[in-house]
Amino acid sequence: MRLVYFLAFALLCAAGQPISSVINQPFPSMQAETVDDKVINIPKDTKGRVTLVGLAYSKKSEKDLSSWMSPVYNTFISQKVNPGSGGLFSSFVYDIDVYLVPMFTGIKAAAAGTAKRKAAKEMDERLMPYILFYQGKLKPYKEALDFEKKDVPYFFLLDEAGKIVYATSGAYSERKMDGIKSAIDELE
Question: The pTM is what?
Answer without folding.
Answer: 0.83
